[in-house]
Amino acid sequence: MNQPAALDLIDESARFFSEPAGDPLVALEKAHLTQLTLCDMLEQIADSIPGQINREVCSRLAAGLLPLIRDIHQFEEEILYPQALDRLGTAPEIESTIRRLRYEHCEDECFAEELADALYELGTGKAPRNPEAIGYMLRGFFEAMRRHIAFEHEHLVRLLRQTATDGQQGLVTG
Predict the structure, then answer these.
(1) HSE of 130 in the Cβ direction (CA atoms, 13 Å)?
(2) Among 35, 43, 44, 56, which is 20 to 30 Å from 92 by CA?
(3) How many helices (H) and strands (E) does the chain have?
(4) Which residue ranges does the record assign to the Hemerythrin-like domain (predicted)?
(5) For residues 57 and 120, what is the distance between their CA atoms, to the nearest angstrom?
């Protein structure tokens, strides 16, 4: 996906997750697509440091990163996880899985706040004080996010889909 289209997806997703509607599992798939697109963009920025930084992309991501992450996490914690617990409450380890995902959300939000500051600095056009540290920070964030999504998919989405194929309806209507 090219950068303008990726930025548009991230902007549109930010509006969507401020008031998600419909089946939470479908919304989660949209969240994962948005987050993976964000990861790809952050990886491109990390690869471009120090010499070929796209200041506009950095500025837009600096402004939208934390609100997007918070909105997605709020959707998961207030809508998806409670419905998943109602649906999967007897599944082995579902409570510990959701507890782990919530903990990772706290860490991701703290990291996103620091990363937004670094992206803002890159967006100003000033030479980064420590380009290696910013590259390391970017990589740490997007790698953690990719792992979180993979874990969520493997341990939560799989169970939710399995219950849907066992004759139950979607999360919202079940």
Answers:
(1) 6
(2) 35
(3) 7, 0
(4) 25-159
(5) 10
> In the numeric block, which tokens belong to residue 61?
């991501």
**Residue-by-residue pLDDT tens, the chain, 174 positions:** 566 666 666 666 656 655 666 778 888 998 999 999 999 999 999 999 888 889 999 999 999 999 999 999 999 999 899 988 888 877 778 889 999 999 999 999 999 999 999 999 999 988 778 889 999 999 999 999 999 999 999 988 888 888 766 555 555 434
Enter the tokens of residue 157. Answer: 């989405």
Which backbone phi and psi does 23 adopt, to 5 degrees? -70, 125
CA dist list (Å): 81 to 6, 27, 50, 95, 149:
27, 13, 40, 9, 14
Cβ-proximal residues to 117 (8 Å cutoff; 6+ apart), any chain: 62
